[in-house]
């Protein structure tokens, strides 16, 4: 439910037994999967990419995407995630060379934990086709027009006040337009964040800083480190910060039973589908995210992101102080955040919250992403309302794909899922939203049953 903490170097990957901090036996050594899987401690991390074994123990702290996202794959095959996250894998491989300690033994399979090799190969073939057809290339004109409509909304909101004054009706309309621009800027910064991976000097990276910082008052680095974890291990407890509910909610089918058996009752969870409306949509952005963002920027000494964030508040108060004064401007931005928060929660949760949630299961990329995501039907309104995140499946399979190509790859993904019997769920917008409440009620009932009878 969007409750992840800030990113620190003390974060801990999945627990396992065996292994040690030794860096390995040299780049020409060979290893079995059993040996690799022992090295998944916080102080001892190996992973495999294209059958090559790397010791990332020390380098993980310097990983541009944050220590957590790479540590989540310690002791595992990270090939599919590596390809999915990096726009230019060859550019990144130069950082891997010093970390190489060997490779898998010739007798070892390419996939770990008994993954379906045919499915993995078929998905790789699909990705190769996607790349060859240019579906991972962004169209600058599309994003320029999208940014333009956000700036136009901001200008119209301010213009209404200059022309018509600060009556209640005009102020309410202004607030709705600002909330709309904030929500749409949120979807746009999400695009730029994914498109600027490992290209810190590129135009996408600069635009990401501008949109999330100057247009929204948030932090690009905070968002990157948090959001990439969600993509790496969606709906996996202790690895996806979006389902770290801080004991406020119990989610899925397993967590409620675990809490119930342990007699944990931080909240009346059998009523969580009701109090969700009071503390979920209204508070996630104006309270929880704002506190987390500023705490992270100060604790990490991220002064660049802090400067971008402050430029948003400076611009906002310069524009609206003449109409509402200081406290009126604070009330306005608080109300805008309140409206935006509802929009954000429903769009992001309807594709994930009702889906499977579990502890680590070491699934292949396609199966893991499809079990945690669903799509919402395509329409002009749904595309705009959700920032094309109604194509959540395609976005999770190809996180660096620009949104304007999701509809082109969707039929190919559906065909692959049908071939391998992987469920591909598509819902109406109404069902997606009602399923959020239904899933919360189901989880609350599971907790109550376990709490009372087990």
Briefly summarize what is shown.
The chain is mainly alpha-helical and about 450 residues long.
Notes on the structure:
There is one protein chain. The protein is mainly α. The chain has 2 domains: 1-114, Roll (Flavocytochrome B2, Chain A, domain 1); 116-454, no CATH class. It is built from 18 helices and 7 strands. The strands form 2 sheets. Strands 1-5-4-3-2 form a 5-stranded mixed beta sheet. Strands 6-7 form a two-stranded parallel ribbon. The longest helix has 47 residues, at 303-349. The relative contact order is 0.13.
Give a quick set of tags describing it.
454 residues, mainly alpha, Flavocytochrome B2, Chain A, domain 1, 2 domains, two-stranded parallel sheet, 7 strands, 57% helix, 5% strand, globular, disordered N terminus, oxidoreductase, Cyt_B5-like_heme/steroid-bd, transmembrane, fatty acid metabolism
